[in-house]
Model the fold of this input.
Amino acid sequence: MSTPLSPYDALRRIAYLLERSRAGTFRVKAFRAAAATALATDPGELASRAEAGTLTDLPGIGTATETVIREALAGEIPEYLKALEDKATKPLVAGGLEVRAALRGDLHSHSDWSDGGSSIQEMAVTAMELGHEYQVLTDHSPRLKIANGLSSERLTKQLLVIEEINAAVGEFDLSKQGAFRLLKGIEVDILDDGSLDQSPEMLSRLDLRVASVHSKLAMSAAPMTRRMIGAVQDPHTNVLGHCTGRLVEGERGTRGQSSFDAAAVFEACAAYEVAVEINARPERADPPDDLMRMALEAGCLFSIDSDAHAPGQLDFLIYGCARAERVGVPADRIVNTWPLDRLLRWANPA
Done:
């Protein structure tokens, strides 16, 4: 990187690289807040404050972010950014490059409308920068209050925002190089009885639906199996999200996988053409390899998803790609390698 960046672009890039490297939330928020302030402040005022030494009087500007702004205003690549860029030249994980190159988009991502850290617009712009042809916004459903799940009313408003973003991006043309579409989606909770935590009418308005278990993960195997199969059989379900619910590392600690009859669940997924999600978040790595092989042998479709809650996490797809490559999942069985028109026909059959 040699072209000088504006203070906003430098701060935004730093935040992205911190998220990608799984840095602490506090540091990321500091740079995101400073970027927002830089964007909202007249460039002339930023320059005059830098000269007067009053940048830190602006909201969200601290010592580290002040230095970045000063260096960017001087036409330099900030030292903090240089260090992060140097580290970013190393791959996040070995392998998976061929599968990653085949992916056209990501079917599971969150915004600050539920428990994500950035706006819908920022998530969409980052997806475009990564070369995605499509990105599905899948904020949580209402029952998951801890994640600020969306009621039908809030989801309806969100759909209008998505339409506005797509209108701003331009008329979508499948033949146009670099075209992008933000898709209407949801990560809908699978309730105890296997029903989905949103009305059928609302679910039918969406382009794609990921169904996941988030509560009572320690339920005994028989009812959990019935619960998951019930969700798979729902005609609105397209993707079975992070099926075991396990956590293998990270800030939230670890958690064992849920007990269920995986053979029966994957048989249902194959029968109803519901994709088994390969959740690429490193702390999830869900499902484990043995269950991925079982789903592969059962004839299941797959979806490799970032489950991103921040822009930099959209790059986590490579973790899932490396696992899919290791297990031998064929690219055509991965639904987000498909062109958009095929994906939408699968997700919403007549």
